[in-house]
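Structure tokens please, single chain.
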Amino acid sequence: GGNSGSPVLNAKGELIGVNFDRAFEATINDYAWDQSYSRSIAVDIRYVLWNVEKVGEAGFLLEEMGIPKSN
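Here you go.
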């Protein structure tokens, strides 16, 4: 563990998601890192922002951060 909440960036350095978990098979990496098992699970940042605005009813936070509202 330790990577939950880390940003996921594209090749341009743009935020595209948030890491929140890893594949079960990747738990071996706590003891011996192996590239063939290392897999992270992320959520698309657009879904996170939609949830903040629509589900959490906290669109005002997005406004404060200068993030445009979704449709």
